[in-house]
Automatic annotation (TrEMBL):
<dbReference type="GO" id="GO:0042802">
    <property type="term" value="F:identical protein binding"/>
</dbReference>
<keyword id="KW-0119">Carbohydrate metabolism</keyword>
<dbReference type="InterPro" id="IPR006148">
    <property type="entry name" value="Glc/Gal-6P_isomerase"/>
</dbReference>
<protein>
    <submittedName>
        <fullName>Glucosamine-6-phosphate deaminase</fullName>
    </submittedName>
</protein>
<dbReference type="GO" id="GO:0005737">
    <property type="term" value="C:cytoplasm"/>
</dbReference>
<dbReference type="Pfam" id="PF01182">
    <property type="entry name" value="Glucosamine_iso"/>
</dbReference>
<feature type="domain" description="Glucosamine/galactosamine-6-phosphate isomerase">
    <location>
        <begin position="14"/>
        <end position="233"/>
    </location>
</feature>
<dbReference type="GO" id="GO:0019262">
    <property type="term" value="P:N-acetylneuraminate catabolic process"/>
</dbReference>
<dbReference type="GO" id="GO:0004342">
    <property type="term" value="F:glucosamine-6-phosphate deaminase activity"/>
</dbReference>
<dbReference type="InterPro" id="IPR004547">
    <property type="entry name" value="Glucosamine6P_isomerase"/>
</dbReference>
<dbReference type="GO" id="GO:0005975">
    <property type="term" value="P:carbohydrate metabolic process"/>
</dbReference>
<dbReference type="GO" id="GO:0006046">
    <property type="term" value="P:N-acetylglucosamine catabolic process"/>
</dbReference>
<dbReference type="GO" id="GO:0006043">
    <property type="term" value="P:glucosamine catabolic process"/>
</dbReference>
<dbReference type="InterPro" id="IPR037171">
    <property type="entry name" value="NagB/RpiA_transferase-like"/>
</dbReference>
Length: 250
């Protein structure tokens, strides 16, 4: 991860729906632009309710040649059945992949050997550059499942991690699980350097519960104690906030 810092573009929208529509249009514009001068575009998607409006807008865009898009997702729970709708890969299929003629979709399948699965997925990711990442920021400032304290210079691309209690509580608050005890304690995740290797980053962060994390990411130190602060090391990052998540003025 580069040590140079940048000022992300911050777009402030009235509410979560407007945020998603604006982000979806921007992502679609970037995708069309990239497909105009290369045979394939490779994208990484977050799977979370905060991403739904953007992905819906993206899927509805008529001028994208999805047959030339390769999709990845950024994290997956351990211990859930392959057909469990709470698995992030299954969520992403419903939200986007089953709605467009995607060229290829590589979804994380931890199987019985998550360490081996992480290694296989890293191989798929590293086969060619990643063009676009569509992500969010966690309540605890995580990117993907890189909970604090995260290694912002992690040499791995994909790894198995333990989820912290704030992260697991967020999954309940998002409506994916009924109680924290239902939330798996381990997951496979792309690392921060893997995510920030992309050519462009679009980060959608609606909701009041994210305001402190957004404020810290934009104005605090770049530090593994708030992993999303690493977004400021990326030269082409746009962060979308609504009136509830908009950062405190500094």
């Amino acid at each position: 991860m580069p040590d140079t810092t940048y000022e992300p573009v911050v777009r402030r929208l009235p509410d979560a729906e407007a945020l998603g529509r604006a982000a979806g249009r921007d992502i679609a514009d970037a995708l069309v632009r990239l497909l105009a001068d290369r045979p394939e575009v490779r994208m990484i998607f977050a799977s979370a309710p905060s991403q739904e409006a953007a992905l819906r807008t993206l899927a509805d865009r008529p001028d994208i040649d999805w047959t030339r898009v390769t999709a990845f997702h950024m994290d997956e729970y351990l211990g859930l059945a392959a057909d469990d709708p709470r698995r992030f890969g299954n969520w992403l299929r419903t939200a986007l992949l089953d709605r467009v003629p995607i060229g290829a979709a590589h979804l994380i399948d931890p199987g019985d050997d998550p360490e081996a699965a992480a290694k296989r997925y890293a191989g798929l990711l590293s086969a060619a550059p990643i063009d676009i990442v569509c992500c969010g920021i966690g309540v605890n400032g995580h990117l993907a499942f890189n909970d604090p304290p995260a290694d912002l210079h992690d040499p791995a691309l994909v790894k198995v991690v333990e989820l912290d209690e704030v992260c697991r509580r967020q999954q309940v608050d998002d409506g994916s699980f009924t109680t924290p005890d239902e939330v798996p304690r381990r997951a496979v995740t792309l690392t921060v350097p893997a995510l920030l290797s992309a050519g462009e980053v679009f980060c959608m962060v609606p909701g009041a519960q994210k305001r402190a994390a957004v404020t810290g990411a934009l104005y605090g130190p770049i530090d593994g104690r708030l992993p999303a602060s690493a977004l400021r090391t990326h030269p082409r990052c746009t962060i979308y906030v609504d009136e509830e998540s908009a950062p405190d003025v500094r």
